# Entry
Amino acid sequence: MQWTLVIPLKPLTRAKSRLADTADDGVRPGLALAFAQDTVAAALACAAVVDVVVVTDDGLAGRELAALGARIVPDAPGGGLNAALAHGTAVVRERLPGAAVAALNADLPALRPPELSRVLESAAEFPRAFLADAAALGTTLLAAAPGLELRPAFGVDSRSRHRASGATELVLTGVDSVRQDVDTGADLRAALALGVGRYTAAVSAGLLIPEC
# Structure
């Protein structure tokens, strides 16, 4: 099964506020963009992915991610993460009604295409499925088979909410790069230990990552 990924990205100036202990206001937008660039680049290199749609109103991010090959969709609802994902999915399905769609976080700088492919291949076995993040509280990927609504419920404790919505939790080993999103300095240290993409490596060089 081939997948279209929908990746939401808030305006860079508002992104990654929880990295304040690691990067100041002048650095965080660049980090957020680098995370998204590495995520999109890895997603586009994944054999199971046919298209990547980024939902954002950030002009700089839109230009940079389009240059990598992503399709940019304006965040018309402006109603937050889940509204952006629902909108992006609707745009995809309007063009390709039979598309298999998966929502993917924009902050997976260590993402590896083979690991993403494993997750998507496993998700294809279920009507709706999700992958918990490294903290086992949130969600980094939510997938819906052709013809089924995505029904995103991202945010605090999204793992529990997605499970309660009837989505199947994917229990996989060896896919740490798909789980390791970055919200805090500790998360960034973990991602760097896994090995981040070239954009994040360049921007994070020289940062003092706090020990936690």
User: Anything to note?
Assistant: The chain has a mean pLDDT of 93. Residues 3-150+166-201 form a domain with the Spore Coat Polysaccharide Biosynthesis Protein SpsA; Chain A fold (CATH 3.90.550.10).
